[in-house]
Amino acid sequence: MPKSPSQGPSSTSMPTSNSRRRWPLAIALALLFTVAIVGILIHRSWNATPTAAPLSHNYAEALELAHNGKPGAARVLYQQLGRTDLSDIRRAGLLTELANYPSPQALKLLKAGLKQSSVLSRQAAIDAVGAMVPAAQRSMLIGPLLEDPDQAVRFSAANALLGLTPDDVGLYFGPLQLVTEQYESALAAQPPSGQSQVQLARLYMTTGAQQKAAAALELALSLEPHNLQAGLTQVELLDKQGQTDRSRQQLAQLLDKHPQSSLLQHALGLWLLGHGQHEYALLALAKAVELEPENTGYRYDLAVALHDLEQLEPAQRQLEDILQRQPANRRARILLIHYWKENGQLQKVQVLLAELEQQNPDDPALQQGL
After folding, report:
1. Rounded distance, CA 220 to CA 202, Å?
2. How far apart are CA 10 and CA 179, in angstroms?
3. Are 331 and 300 in contact (CB under 8 A)?
4. How far is CA 234 from CA 63, 130, 249, in A?
5. How far apart are CA 100 and CA 326, in angstroms?
6. Distance (Å, rounded) from C-alpha 239 to C-alpha 254?
7. Got the DSSP string for 233-262?
8. What is the CA radius of gyration of the chain?
9. How far is CA 51 from the centre of its chain?
10. Which end of the chain has the least Cβ crowding within 10 Å, N or C?
């Protein structure tokens, strides 16, 4: 007897119906998974540490730009000093160049340099502060290093502050005296040499111990009769003691023995300036420059002396020569700008200012409208 047809749904229709119900569920799960992954990626991107901007120059390029006063020198110098992977000697070299590129950013980098773990870097930062920061502000930066754990750093800090007035030293006057005494004791304990005795004599001179200074210089000259620094320090001490004739005679004797010494000719020029003999001083300062043309310090002093005698154009030429040799020499550039202003050469002033702005757009001289 034939079977009657089934009343329920056929076996072939069941899988098709189930598949239709599973597809929306699968799509929903896939979308939910995708949203979750995107959310995780966004969260990670928001909380990730920003990647440092790539350096535009390497150390050697930055040093060359800064040393030669090229456009963009300050920016590249600051960028390099912001690195954490510099060797001690490279950081010290960059800090030395920083003196020609003052700005608020440079001051921050100097403060960071004074806190470096490297003794070499801290000493270089001390020297840079001395070259860049006005005397009245210097002690606030260097003063804390009078308590540095390293003796060499304490002595460097003391040397940087010894030339300041008690008012400029301020709160650090007591610590400075203490470190100076330690420095004197350390030098006195060394096997005597010309160099150590000259350093000791200079310390005694700053503290007013003139007899001790004289004894140290006599010992230095007995050890090294041809030590010019010892002889010149003796000239300076005699002058401070009011023994002008003996001071002049001592300097003359040194010059008789070393007439071609640029150091002695320069010292003679400064001595004559200090005693009001400006015209004779010019001869000695010019001789020093002739003997050592590359010494921009000698040339700068000659420019100032010429200007004081109202020889403005020769003074300007000396400063221009410095900038040709050392375009980064900010001290000479600022002085030449003043001299050109006096002479009414405003076009030349604008050229010098434009070059300065290219080197360091944040230079205080530009911000103050020099």
Report:
1. 12
2. 105
3. yes
4. 39, 25, 11
5. 11
6. 15
7. HHHHHHHHTT-HHHHHHHHHHHHHH-TT-H
8. 35
9. 29
10. N
* pLDDT single digits (tens) 319-347: 999 999 999 999 999 999 999 999 899 99
Query: Nearest-5° angle of CA 55, CA 59, CA 62?
Result: 80
Q: Which of 50-59, 119-128, 139-148, 162-171 has the lowest mean pLDDT?
A: 50-59
Amino acid at 19: S
Identify the CA nearest to 230 among candidates 242, 239, 240, 218.
Answer: 218
pLDDT (0 to 100) of residue 369: 63
Kindly list the distances between the CA atom of residue 310 and the CA atoms of 60, 91, 297, 336, in Å, as whole numbers in the listed order. 42, 42, 20, 14
Q: Is the entire prediction scored with pTM above 0.85? A: no
How many CA atoms lie less than 13 Å away from 232 in the CB half-sphere? 18
DSSP 127-191: HHHHHHS-HHHHHHHHGGGGG-SSHHHHHHHHHHHTTS-HHHHGGGHHHHHHHHHHHHHHHHHSP
Apex 249 CA angle, 247 and 250, nearest 5? 65
> Is 323 in contact with 303 (CB distance < 8 Å)?
no
**Residue labelled with tokens 């000791």:** 200
**Token match 């089934």: residue?**
6
